[in-house]
Design a protein that fits this description.
Elements lengths: L2 E6 L10 E5 L3 E8 L2 E6 L2 E5 L3 H8 L4 E5 L2 E4 L3 E7 L2 E6 L4 E4 L6
Antiparallel strand pairs: 1-2, 1-5, 3-4, 4-5, 6-7, 8-9, 9-10
Length: 107
């Protein structure tokens, strides 16, 4: 079944418990909470789709994801190599795909 990660609309505590994984079959309805953010209403509460990388990094951190810069969240378990460059680092993944990040790493 399809799993969805969302952030609580109400009763947030400001910690990891604000992020909830739920199943699509639990959703009663979906509506647009704001222009670009759908909300999923379930019997257990309403959850917003993750729309910010800070939320994505916090929600998926326990699965090995880390925020490397303002525009990238990286699954560190999939990294094959980090190639330093003058303006950041080229992250190369096990499948040979890559992404350039502004964070600099030393070899």
């Amino acid at each position: 079944m399809i799993g969805i990660m969302g952030v609580k609309l109400d009763n947030r505590t400001g910690d990891e418990s604000d992020f909830v994984e739920f199943r699509l079959r639990e959703v009663n309805y979906i509506y647009m909470w704001s222009k670009n953010i759908p909300a999923y209403h379930t019997a257990n509460g309403t959850y917003l789709a993750l729309s910010k990388l800070t939320d994505v990094a916090a929600a998926y951190g326990k699965y090995g994801f880390q925020r490397y810069d303002q525009s990238s969240v990286i699954n560190v378990d999939k990294i094959k190599d980090k190639v330093p460059q003058s303006d950041g680092t080229l992250i190369i993944f096990q499948d040979e795909s890559s992404v350039k990040v502004t964070k600099k790493f030393k070899n």
